[in-house]
């Protein structure tokens, strides 16, 4: 044995090792390939030797050659041999080679299963580690299935080094074997709270990766991640979690609201730029998901934009790049906040770094407005000139077009300017985007009727100067423009000044050098022009000129008839024959112009690209059914070529009507319209576009005159700059005019919106230079909504879209290695078989099994490979024999497979955590485990109108939502007052009744509607309703004595008169003061920022500063207002009392049960208790009421006992323990401020005494 | 997820390549060439991010790279990775190499490809970041190195002696290596903590 070792190492001495190989390659620079091929031959020899060290050395060299691009898969079996060496050194070499070159198609992989299993359970942690690392690179579905259970066991290994690797590799296992996700998930979740930060980080990593693809399945983990986020200090983990939240918030806006605060804190506190950047990114995602313009959000947006500006201004190009990237995300929802940084972004356009310039360009897209479009495009045009001949210039070109054409040319006020820009862009050499410019020209000319005259003139000059565009063969990208030019000139030839000249230009011999499809358009449109010219000449009875025109065509067209392009040839010969016929008629002095023009009569409407697809299939139509009996096979062949032409130029198909008789024409048109109307296959003009055509014609449109006496650089290339000047002047003028008008209107206009914060000059104020109708693209009337499935069916992550909250079924257990797989029917039997089998039997059965497996898999393989295998049989058997008979871990699976009963409870916990709202009825089904997530989440929105969504002022109830709420409110009050004010509220009542009905129809006992608003005061003119639980927030933070309270008051006009000049005033007490604007005296009132027309209600918010919150407060106040009716206006006033309860100072704050327990243990809290008798409402209603009216959140609930928590705005903790039995409710309460607690309890009592 | 980690020199010669998705050897070489082409034409003072190459994954992916002396370290990642985080990770990787090789230079990477792989395996596993703490990485790498040495024992001694002799036989060795003996300078950058 010793001799063998020595011999082996002597052998090694003369073998090349990796270093020798590298050195050799470097010394053979000239004939590297040859040298390497000799090396490979050597390696092959080495691999044949018995000595494992020699083999390992050879494999190591192969790894290097693999990097250089040599295929080494032929050595796969040797790699497996080296992997199975008992020495770590060689094992590592083997696994490394395997990880570099094994993949799913490698057939020897299946031989590795047992070796890997053995290594995974090796006592040496590095053996296990190396195996895990290797496996992570080449895991296959089979390996994943066979090893999932072993890896899962390793997730609870004692060594964190193994744990973290095992956790991380689970992701790969899930991808390859999705069935393993559910059984393994509970343990994975456990690892989120592993004591070792590395393991924790790995678990976060895996779950983030999973959640990114199927976020909705991981929403229930949000509280856990939230906790991690607030406790972790590892920036990697934080970044991952924050990114994950970015993916979750779009699914759950309430989550976003929770996140804003901690994220903003992180933004303020962190010094790590990477973390800061991700925070900003997620805040942006949150704000997008909330998408509301509440004032507090605008603060967050401002913060983000501010931080991003710092990044962009940084000298580090990376930060600059990322800043711009994030900025473009804000842009989508809050363009205004980004627009103010236009200067900075324009500056970035000059950056030397192309990545940064491209990002800045992206941003520009969203920053344009009607006002600055011309200016920005002018800047870009300058850049275009500078960036000659680069791909960046092409990018600029597409961006200019994107910017201008975005949202249906929304920002273009002057289309002449735009056409000029397009024409200027045609001067670009060597651009690939000729077709883009062409399609824009076509689109604008077709859809903007008013511009046709101008466009035609420009296109005519373009055609005239076509040699400028086509002169250089390299420029052929741009000649696409001629396609558009020819078509526009032909189609709208009535606008041409000199059609004859254009016709001549289109038939120049040079045209024949253009690409075929352009020539075809030339020929076709020459015919259109011919018709126009004929008509013109016949109108002037100039038969001589008309005949000359025909002659011109007859002379020139033969050139095209000879064209190699079929399309050109066909069109040319048709038209040539037509012209010849016309010439004959002309010679007989027959008037033909009208008939010829009739060939091209009719308007072409733009059709939406998807229109055809969206035509719904009418009922009873089976498109697959044969209309006639299918013809025999041989006949059908010659029908195919048709489609070739149809695709190329569909625009030229038009109705051709040679009737001369006007009446007949009209009659036919009518008939046709009728037919079309009844024909479901015809794409009808939508009513809107129909209207556009009836709109006043071109004559009514004031066209800006261009001074053409100014010599232009290139004939027909107008300078777009002049439009800029014109535009500025025009805007100036308009502004002046508008100011005058505004002064007049000012008085009437006030109070239009609650917050009159529109900028000094909003975009809508800029009127376009020309009155422009942009024709919309046509769509079939009853177009189907688009139902494109954008998920890639091949995405491996689709398989991982698994509901993780369902309890595990028996069938889902991970396959455990058993000795007789066929016995695996019941777990009990399994266990028996485990303990019984004798040693020898075991071995043989296993071998059998292994062979059987091999056989199965080999079935597909060729016989040659089998031969090869025989050769290696020895080694294989050696491999098999060397497996230790480790115990099977069936307990492990059992443990994991135990149904996670807590999951559905978790789902409802999530709702609690998110909304701090009452338990929705569905959450009662905690014990019913099946798909509880689904039901509870569905139930939430139903009861939502009754829930306080959140107590923070940035609450984002949509206005719609609010209205509904108010309606309900009214309805309720109406009932209470026995419809005393019945006649005022017809509309409110109807709506209210509806919603109540909706409520009672629900199958489960619903929560009684709870109202948030109570009447503050009312008289015959006005009713003031005040949100009962006014929203509270603490601007200054806990350390300040003074806290702020926001009170929302709804003002409703009950009279038939107009109410205006409302002033809200409150007599301040020592403790509570109304916040008045700076400079106002302590007794001045606040103006309510709106007026109320009859029957209208609106909401205003008032901020109070409060010093002590332990006692309830009452404030007296008055509302004064002017009642303006047709005849007179009178001053009126209304007194009211504002009551600040102690509960209104409480903020719903979630609390984890462990933190709650700690709080109670601390002993700082003083206790008090309360007993309520005769409460006969379900317990969850009771809790809901407490949550709703008193801003508590449920910490834990067990049967008829619940612990609840809330925090005051000044940081007092309030804890409740609510128990119920037989209509008696006892509440034990603890708080660090006894008087606050006393008052809160009193208020609780009051709430329940009311019902 | 990290899709690939590439190290190549200023001339585009691969020094290490690790793909976390399977490609054929030809495609791998093509990716390396394409990446080199993209990265090498960029100035020194531009940002370290590139919108993805065509071959790996397409538009969703980003190339994040750093250039040290003669070597480019390129990570190809998808959108779930933090750009600045990966930049830091590259820094950690290079600093770790620097510690393990004692003033790392291109030659170290050329001659000890396996060791570079082993170090990387302690940082990134199957495309996911395993460890970012440099001292932890070095501890694990060194522990495994020790194991290797103890396994070699007496049997390893002759081999080591031979390779020493081989090196002596080639006194001109440094001359052959016309590039790369400049050690990689590791600038001090704000790390994670």
TrEMBL record, chain A:
Recorded hits in SUPFAM superfamilies, A to Z, give: ARM repeat
Q: What is its main location?
A: cytoplasm
List the Pfam families hit by this protein, alphabetically: Adaptin_N, AP3D1, Mu_AP3
Q: Where is the composition biased (Basic and acidic residues)?
A: 639-675, 724-739, 793-833, 853-865, 946-958
What's an example GO BP annotation here?
synaptic vesicle budding from endosome
Q: Where in the cell is it found?
A: Cytoplasm; Golgi apparatus membrane
InterPro entries registered for this protein in UniProt: AP3_complex_dsu, AP3D_dom_metazoa, ARM-like, ARM-type_fold, Clathrin/coatomer_adapt-like_N, Mu_AP3
Basic residues bias: start-end ranges: 740-753, 843-852, 975-987
Q: Name a GO CC annotation attached to this entry.
A: Golgi membrane
Membrane topology classification: Peripheral membrane protein
Domain (AP-3 complex subunit delta): residue spans on this chain: 660-805
Annotated transmembrane regions: none
Positions of region (Disordered): 627-683, 723-1013
| Segments of skewed composition (Polar residues) | 927-938
**What's in the keyword line of the UniProt record?**
Acetylation, Coiled coil, Cytoplasm, Golgi apparatus, Membrane, Phosphoprotein, Protein transport, Repeat, Transport
Q: Where is the composition biased (Acidic residues)?
A: 775-792
Instruction: Please note every region of biased composition (Low complexity).
Output: 896-907
The role this protein plays is: Part of the AP-3 complex, an adaptor-related complex which is not clathrin-associated. The complex is associated with the Golgi region as well as more peripheral structures. It facilitates the budding of vesicles from the Golgi membrane and may be directly involved in trafficking to lysosomes. Involved in process of CD8+ T-cell and NK cell degranulation. In concert with the BLOC-1 complex, AP-3 is required to target cargos into vesicles assembled at cell bodies for delivery into neurites and nerve terminals.
Name the family: Belongs to the adaptor complexes large subunit family.
The protein, known as: AP-3 complex subunit delta-1
| Organism this protein belongs to | Carassius auratus (Goldfish)
UniProtKB/TrEMBL annotation, chain B:
Q: Give GO BP annotations, semicolon-separated.
A: Golgi to vacuole transport; intracellular protein transport
Q: How does it sit in the membrane?
A: Peripheral membrane protein
Q: Where in the cell is it found?
A: Cytoplasmic vesicle membrane; Golgi apparatus
What Pfam families does the annotation carry?
Clat_adaptor_s
Entry keyword annotation includes Transport: yes
Described function: Part of the AP-3 complex, an adaptor-related complex which is not clathrin-associated. The complex is associated with the Golgi region as well as more peripheral structures. It facilitates the budding of vesicles from the Golgi membrane and may be directly involved in trafficking to lysosomes. In concert with the BLOC-1 complex, AP-3 is required to target cargos into vesicles assembled at cell bodies for delivery into neurites and nerve terminals.
Q: Which family does it belong to?
A: Belongs to the adaptor complexes small subunit family.
UniProt xrefs under PANTHER family: ADAPTOR COMPLEXES SMALL SUBUNIT FAMILY
Q: What is this protein called?
A: AP-3 complex subunit sigma-1 isoform X1
Species the sequence originates in: Carassius auratus (Goldfish)
What taxonomic ancestry is recorded?
Answer: Eukaryota, Metazoa, Chordata, Craniata, Vertebrata
């Amino acid at each position: 044995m010793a001799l063998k070792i020595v011999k082996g190492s002597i052998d090694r001495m003369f073998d090349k090792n990796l270093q020798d190989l590298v050195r050799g390659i470097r010394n053979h620079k000239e004939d590297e390939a040859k040298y390497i091929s000799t090396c490979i031959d050597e390696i092959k020899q080495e691999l044949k030797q018995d000595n494992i060290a020699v083999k390992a050395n050879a494999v190591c060299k192969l790894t290097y050659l693999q990097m250089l691009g040599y295929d080494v898969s032929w050595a796969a079996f040797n790699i497996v041999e080296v992997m199975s060496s008992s020495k770590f050194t060689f094992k590592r070499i083997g696994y490394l080679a395997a990880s570099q070159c094994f993949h799913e198609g490698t057939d020897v992989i299946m031989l590795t299963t047992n070796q890997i299993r053995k290594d995974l359970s090796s006592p040496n942690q590095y053996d296990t580690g190396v195996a895990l690392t290797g496996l992570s690179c080449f895991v296959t579905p089979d390996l994943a299935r066979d090893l999932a259970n072993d890896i899962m066991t390793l997730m609870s290994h004692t060594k964190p080094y193994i744990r973290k690797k095992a956790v991380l590799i689970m992701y790969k296992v899930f991808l390859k074997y999705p069935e393993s996700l559910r059984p393994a998930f509970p343990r994975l979740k456990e690892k989120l709270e592993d004591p070792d930060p590395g393991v924790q980080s790995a678990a976060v990593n895996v779950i983030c990766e999973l959640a990114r693809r199927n976020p909705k399945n991981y929403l229930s983990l949000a509280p856990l991640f939230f906790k991690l986020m607030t406790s972790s200090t590892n920036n990697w983990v934080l970044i991952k979690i924050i990114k994950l939240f970015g993916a979750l918030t779009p699914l759950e806006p309430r989550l976003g609201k929770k996140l804003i605060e901690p994220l903003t804190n992180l933004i303020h506190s962190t010094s790590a730029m990477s973390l800061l950047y991700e925070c900003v990114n997620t805040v942006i995602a949150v704000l997008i998901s909330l998408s509301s313009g509440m004032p507090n959000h605008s603060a967050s947006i401002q913060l983000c934009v501010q931080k991003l500006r710092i990044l962009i201004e940084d000298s580090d190009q990376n930060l600059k790049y990322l800043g711009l990237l994030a900025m473009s995300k804000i842009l989508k929802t809050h363009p205004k906040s980004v627009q103010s940084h236009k200067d900075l972004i324009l500056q970035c356009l000059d950056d030397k770094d192309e990545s940064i310039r491209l990002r800045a360009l992206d941003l520009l897209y969203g920053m344009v407005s009607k006002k600055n479009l011309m200016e920005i495009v002018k800047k870009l045009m300058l850049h275009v000139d500078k960036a000659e001949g680069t791909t960046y210039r092409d990018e600029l070109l597409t961006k200019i077009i994107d910017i201008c054409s975005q949202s249906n040319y929304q920002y273009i006020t002057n289309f002449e300017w735009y056409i000029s820009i397009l024409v200027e862009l045609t001067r670009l050499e060597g651009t690939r985007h000729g077709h883009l410019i062409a399609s824009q020209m076509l689109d604008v000319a077709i859809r903007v009727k008013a511009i046709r005259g101008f466009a035609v003139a420009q296109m005519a000059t373009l055609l005239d100067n076509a040699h400028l565009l086509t002169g250089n063969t390299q420029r052929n990208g741009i000649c696409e423009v001629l396609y558009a030019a020819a078509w526009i000139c032909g189609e709208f030839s009535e606008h041409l000044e000199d059609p004859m000249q254009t016709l001549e230009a289109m038939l120049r011999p040079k045209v024949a050098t253009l690409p075929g499809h352009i020539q075809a358009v030339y020929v076709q449109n020459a015919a259109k022009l011919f018709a126009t010219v004929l008509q013109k000449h016949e109108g002037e009875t100039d038969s001589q000129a008309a005949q000359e025109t025909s002659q011109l065509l007859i002379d020139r067209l033969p050139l095209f008839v000879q064209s190699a392009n079929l399309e050109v040839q066909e069109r040319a010969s048709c038209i040539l024959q037509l012209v010849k016929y016309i010439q004959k008629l002309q010679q007989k002095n027959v008037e033909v112009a009208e008939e010829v023009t009739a060939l091209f009569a009719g308007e072409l409407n733009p059709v939406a690209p998807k229109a055809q697809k969206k035509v719904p299939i009418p009922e009873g139509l089976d498109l697959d059914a044969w209309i006639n009996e299918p013809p025999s096979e041989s006949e059908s062949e010659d029908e195919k070529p048709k489609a070739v032409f149809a695709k190329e130029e569909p625009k030229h198909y038009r109705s051709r009507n040679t009737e001369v008789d006007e009446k007949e024409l009209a009659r036919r048109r009518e008939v046709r319209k009728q037919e079309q109307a009844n024909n479901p296959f015809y794409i009808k003009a939508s009513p809107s576009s129909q209207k556009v055509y009836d709109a006043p014609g071109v004559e009514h449109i004031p066209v800006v005159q261009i001074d053409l006496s100014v010599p232009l650089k290139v004939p027909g290339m107008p300078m777009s700059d002049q439009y800029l000047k014109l535009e500025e002047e025009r805007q100036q003028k308009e502004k002046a005019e508008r100011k005058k008008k505004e002064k007049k209107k000012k008085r009437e206009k006030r109070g239009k919106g609650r917050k009159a914060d529109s900028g000094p000059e909003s975009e809508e104020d800029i009127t376009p230079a020309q009155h422009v109708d942009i024709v919309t693209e046509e769509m079939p009337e009853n177009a189907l909504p688009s139902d494109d499935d954008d998920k890639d069916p091949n995405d491996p992550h689709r398989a991982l879209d698994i509901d993780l909250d369902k309890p595990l079924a028996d069938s889902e257990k991970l396959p455990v290695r058993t000795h007789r797989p066929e016995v695996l029917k019941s777990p009990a039997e399994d266990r028996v078989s485990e303990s019984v089998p004798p040693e020898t039997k075991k071995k043989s059965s296993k071998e059998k099994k292994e062979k059987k497996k091999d056989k199965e898999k080999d079935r597909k393989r060729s016989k040659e490979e089998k031969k090869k295998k025989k050769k290696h049989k020895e080694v294989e058997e050696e491999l098999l024999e060397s497996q230790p008979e480790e115990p099977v871990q069936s307990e492990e699976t059992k443990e994991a497979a135990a149904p996670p009963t807590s999951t559905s409870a978790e789902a409802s916990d999530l709702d609690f955590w998110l909304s701090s709202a009452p338990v929705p009825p569905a959450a009662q089904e905690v014990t019913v485990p099946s798909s509880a997530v689904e039901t509870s989440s569905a139930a939430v929105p139903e009861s939502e109108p009754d829930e306080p969504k959140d107590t923070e002022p940035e609450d984002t109830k949509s206005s719609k939502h609010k209205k509904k709420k108010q309606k309900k409110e009214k309805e309720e009050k109406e009932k209470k007052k026995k419809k005393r004010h019945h006649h005022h509220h017809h509309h409110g009542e109807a709506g209210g009744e509806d919603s109540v009905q909706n409520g009672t129809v629900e199958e489960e006992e619903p929560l009684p509607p709870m109202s948030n608003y109570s009447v503050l005061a009312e008289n015959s003119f006005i009713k003031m309703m005040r949100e009962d639980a006014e929203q509270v927030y603490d601007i200054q933070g806990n350390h300040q004595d003074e806290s702020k309270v926001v009170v929302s008051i709804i003002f409703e006009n009950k009279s038939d008169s107009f109410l205006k000049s409302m002033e809200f005033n409150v007599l301040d007490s020592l403790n509570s003061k109304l916040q008045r604007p700076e400079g106002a005296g302590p007794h001045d009132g606040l103006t309510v920022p709106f007026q109320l027309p009859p029957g209208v209600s609106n909401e205003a918010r008032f901020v109070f500063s409060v010093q002590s919150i332990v006692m309830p407060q009452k404030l007296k106040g008055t509302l004064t207002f002017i009642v303006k009716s047709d005849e007179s206006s009178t001053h009126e006033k209304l007194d009211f009392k504002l009551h600040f309860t102690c509960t209104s100072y409480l903020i719903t704050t979630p609390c984890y049960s462990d933190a709650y327990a700690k709080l109670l243990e601390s002993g700082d809290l003083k206790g008090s208790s309360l007993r309520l008798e005769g409460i006969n409402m379900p317990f969850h209603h009771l809790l809901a009421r407490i949550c709703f009216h008193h801003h508590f959140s449920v910490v834990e609930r067990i049967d008829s006992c619940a612990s609840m928590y809330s925090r005051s705005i000044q940081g007092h903790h309030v804890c409740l323990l609510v128990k119920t039995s037989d209509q008696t409710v006892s509440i034990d309460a603890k708080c660090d401020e006894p008087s606050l607690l006393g008052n809160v309890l009193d208020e609780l009592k009051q709430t329940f005494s009311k019902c | 997820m990290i899709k690939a980690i590439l190290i190549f020199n200023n001339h585009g010669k691969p020094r290490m390549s690790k793909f976390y998705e399977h490609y054929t050897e030809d495609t791998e070489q093509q990716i390396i060439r394409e990446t080199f082409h993209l990265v090498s034409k960029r100035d020194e003072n531009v940002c370290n991010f590139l919108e993805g190459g065509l071959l790996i994954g397409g538009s969703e992916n980003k190339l994040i790279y750093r250039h040290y002396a003669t070597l480019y370290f390129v990570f190809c990642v998808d959108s779930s990775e933090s750009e600045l985080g990966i930049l830091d990770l590259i820094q950690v990787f290079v600093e770790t190499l620097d510690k393990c090789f004692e003033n790392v230079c291109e030659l170290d990477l050329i001659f000890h490809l396996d060791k570079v792989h082993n170090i990387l395996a302690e940082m990134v596993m199957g495309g996911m970041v395993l460890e970012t703490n440099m001292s932890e990485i070095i501890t694990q790498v060194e522990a495994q190195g020790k194991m290797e040495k103890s396994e070699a024992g007496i049997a390893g001694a002759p081999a080591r002696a031979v390779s020493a002799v081989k090196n002596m036989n080639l006194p001109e060795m440094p001359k052959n290596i016309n590039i790369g003996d400049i050690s990689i300078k590791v600038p001090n950058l704000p790390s994670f903590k």
